[in-house]
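Morning F.,

Quick status update on the modeling queue. The single chain you submitted on Monday has been processed. Sequence for confirmation:
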Amino acid sequence: MTSVLYDVPGPRARVRNGLIGVIGTLVVLGIIGFVVYRLAATGQFEPRLWEWLQFRAIQLLIVDALLNTLSAFGVAAVLSLVFGAIFAAGRMSDHAWLRGPSTAIVEFFRAVPLLILIFILYFGVSQTLGLNLSTYWSLVLGLMLYNGSVLAEVFRAGVRALPRGQSEAAYALGLRKTQVMTNVLLPQSLRAMLPTIVSQLVVVLKDTALGFIILYPELLYQARYLGSQGQLGAPILQVAIVIAVLYILMCLLLSGLAQLLEKRSRRRRPGGADPAEIVREEEKVAAAQAQGGGAQVGG
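Structure tokens below.
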């Protein structure tokens, strides 16, 4: 028995893979232990370097920065998904006048670094076009243009990866192109695209940290501010650890939400059916009828 990309491991291979996994885990734990030991040896865990966490004003500052980060991420994620869906549909259009500009826009914004997009929106647009974009919208729009272009390619590749027989069978049943896309292709492709979509949304979340360059008060901006305060002991490493833990927790929650949605999408609704299975069954019936008709003609 084989898979598409590799042979299914046998008993020896499973033992070998398990041993490699154990060794790799021990190596990682060893590295983490060494880092913690060095931090302790250099006094990075001394209480005086963590006293800043007890101040209510600093706690409120971190909470406010966290809310600013989540606000920018939430709006940018929604806009990126909408942007990606619209331009993915444009790239798959049968009309050249729509497909060409969509392709040019997606390829352009995929090629431009995100930091440059943010600079252009915050500094260039304000000076050349006279539009006074705030730091918030400069960050959000930059995230939307870059990540939306990436998601457009993800959506297009996910739909194109499905067998052509799926859409051909749906067209044979008399469905229009919109119905084929919404009832047959998207339900199947979304399941395959969900891990990639979530990975890109995690990128959106982490890229909000670029807002500190244009002085948007998100987590990294406040971390740099707190870490440079001499009256607090300049706890740059301690602040960085706290901010890193917050980012890790947010990414884990986002991944957990994606797994929950994936599990729910796999459940069968009572009395419902998968549109793709209906198309496959109709395709089988049509093929059987064609074979039967051919036999009758031959007889």
